[in-house]
């Protein structure tokens, strides 16, 4: 059974940092493209970042480029999102997601349960 | 960036009704479109990919159509468990973008 377990969310002050993690199991993580998607309270879905299976390719939304870094440790089957220079508008539930297919922009067939990030003073 | 516009933003319907949701892309995306269902407090669930391919395990009352810029999600006979929000997503090119969502409510 595919499982994605998101963690690392919490309350952080503007300008602060957080690192989210997503522990994967039940599939071959090292050959899967992975992503982060967020959802602000009461709002729609926003794609944040995607990383290729090897980690050599990364993509970011303009809203987080230069502040967030996606990475992965295939030996630990874990996906990360390092979030720096946090802003109030980064407040959201963050989901990790697994891509359905082999191409980088593939849709997401499995999602984590989400972890809430709140940026406030 | 490709903008995805969904309509309507909400729809009231009864069990057994046929519901149609549309999604328009600001430029052509061939068939690179996915549809998701999301229930309150839960993660989204993939329903349709490549515009019309049904994801494994999704009931056949869900169907998708379209190509280029105009797409449709149809729920043939609405069931109680289908009351939820639905999102389209273009998977043609980065940045990946979602539609604003459609909430299907009980009439």
Task: Describe the 3D structure.
The complex is a heterodimer of chains A (121) and B (107). Chain A is an all-beta fold and 121 residues long. Helices cover 0% and strands 50% of the residues of chain A. Chain A has no helices and 11 strands. Chain A has strands at residues 3-7, 10-12, 18-25, 34-39, 45-51, 58-60, 68-73, 78-83, 92-99, 108-111, 115-119. In chain A, strands 2, 4, 5, 6, 9, 10 and 11 form a 7-stranded mixed sheet that branches. In chain A, strand 4 (34-39) and strand 5 (45-51) form a beta hairpin. Chain A is globular and about 40 Å long. Chain B has 107 residues and is mainly β. Chain B has strands spanning 4-7, 10-13, 19-25, 33-38, 45-49, 53-54, 62-67, 70-75, 85-90, 97-98, 102-106. In chain B, a hairpin with a 6-residue loop joins strand 4 and strand 5 (45-49). Chain B is globular and about 35 Å long. Chain A binds chain B through residues 35, 37, 44-47, 50, 59-62, 95, 100, 104-109, 111-114, and chain B through 1, 32, 34, 36, 38, 43-46, 49, 55, 87, 89, 91-101.
Concise structural overview:
The complex is a heterodimer of chains A (121) and B (107). With 121 residues, chain A is mainly β. Chain A has strands at residues 3-7, 10-12, 18-25, 34-39, 45-51, 58-60, 68-73, 78-83, 92-99, 108-111, 115-119.
Descriptive labels:
heterodimer; A: 121 residues; mainly beta; seven-stranded mixed β-sheet; four-stranded antiparallel β-sheet; globular; B: mainly beta; 50% strand
Low-confidence stretches of chain B: none
Overall mean confidence score, pLDDT of chain A: 97
Looking at the structure, what is the overall shape of chain B? globular
Strand content of chain A: over 45%
Radius of gyration of chain A equals: 13 Å
Shape of chain A: globular
* Rounded radius of gyration of chain B (Å): 13 Å
